[in-house]
Amino acid sequence: MMVTEEFAWDAFVRRDRRYDGQFIGAVKTTGIYCKPSCAARHPLRENVEFFKTAAEARSAGYRACMRCKPDEVGRDRAAVSAALKLIEAAEDSISLEELATSVDYAPHHFHRIFKRDTGVTPAVYARGVKAKRAAAALEREGSVTEAIYEAGYSGPSRFYANTKGHLGMTPSAWKNGGAGVRISWAIVDTDLGKMLLAATDKGICRLSFDEDASELVKRFPKAEIVAGGAKLEQLVKGAIAAIEHPAQMPDLPLDVAGTAFQQAIWSELRRIPAGETRTYAQLAAAVGKPKAVRAAGSANGANNVAVLIPCHRVIRTGGGLGGYAYGLEIKRKLLEKEAK
């Protein structure tokens, strides 16, 4: 199993839809097996055992619940997988109705299972695919306009509308190392050492430890990089509060860019409560990609905003701390502080 029995029971009690298809809960007293999100009344813990698949539960003598219909989860997964391939291969936008019809589902139902399995809606996923194409095209030779059309947008206006808040910067800045963007920064002392915080006018674009402004110059060589600023003061105070009081983390604006999968992973990281951890396998399963453990680790490592997107709360399956960009000592201190 990708998760422990204790974790499976916890998800079962929460009726967590994100784990539908990841495991099956079987009730010994009724002889019925259910998916984690089943709305039926929960049995006692000692009367439940877990299986990786419905087939295993049937082999053990259980029958499917008529209320939650766990055997349909496999069909849902196949439909979402087919839809992902269609979105990624399409040159033009595909409507929800067209997408649902292609996999033989009603639009509203397919919208729900797609978001359950991927962590994002079909429209958001499609925008992420286009934005990724645009980013790749902008890094190659050629004009911004050519890159926009190459990525599959109908024109510049549609590109600007769809990527607003996704790429985080204007297309020229993405192509030209931050050209036209003003980034303010500050370095302050914290319990974890010196913290670098940098922000655009949209939000925090980097939070790191034991780095200086030269790191920003490497990342955004053509941006206007300036020290301090009144607005930055409030963001710094909020970041320090997040370190000192993780259970009451303030909601600070972020300016981050990533693929649809990375954004889904980062959103899942922000759902992990202070004082708890998840494994890379659990993180992958939570966004509906149980086999993408390595990709989940890469998305975790691609996070540019430490603490506020708490990638330090992810550990190895065996309980080891795993890696951390700013050293295991800082990761250990963060987890110890949150455990208290």
Please render the helix and strand layout as text.
Blueprint: H1 5-14, E1 24-27, E2 32-34, E3 48-51, H2 54-59, E4 63-64, H3 73-89, H4 96-102, H5 107-118, H6 122-139, H7 144-150, H8 156-163, H9 171-175, E5 182-190, E6 193-199, E7 204-209, H10 213-219, E8 224-227, H11 230-244, H12 260-271, E9 278-279, H13 280-286, H14 293-301, E10 314-315, H15 328-339
Parallel strand pairs: 2-4, 5-8, 9-10
Antiparallel strand pairs: 1-2, 1-3, 5-6, 6-7
Helix pairs in contact: 3-5, 6-7, 13-14
Describe, in plain words, how this protein is organized in 3D.
Helix 3 crosses helix 5 and helix 13 (280-286) crosses helix 14 (293-301). The protein is α/β, with parallel strands linked by helices and 340 residues long. The protein has five domains: 5-68, DNA Methylphosphotriester Repair Domain (3-Layer(aba) Sandwich), CATH 3.40.10.10; 73-118, Arc Repressor Mutant, subunit A (Orthogonal Bundle), CATH 1.10.10; 125-175, no CATH class; 182-248, Double Stranded RNA Binding Domain (2-Layer Sandwich), CATH 3.30.160.70; 260-339, Winged helix-like DNA-binding domain superfamily/Winged helix DNA-binding domain (Arc Repressor Mutant, subunit A, Orthogonal Bundle), CATH 1.10.10.10. Helix content is 45%, strand content 13%.
Spatial separation of the terminal alpha carbons: 30 Å
CATH class of the largest domain: Mainly Alpha
CATH superfamily of the largest domain: Winged helix-like DNA-binding domain superfamily/Winged helix DNA-binding domain
SSE class: alpha/beta
> Averaged pLDDT, please?
84
Overall form? flat
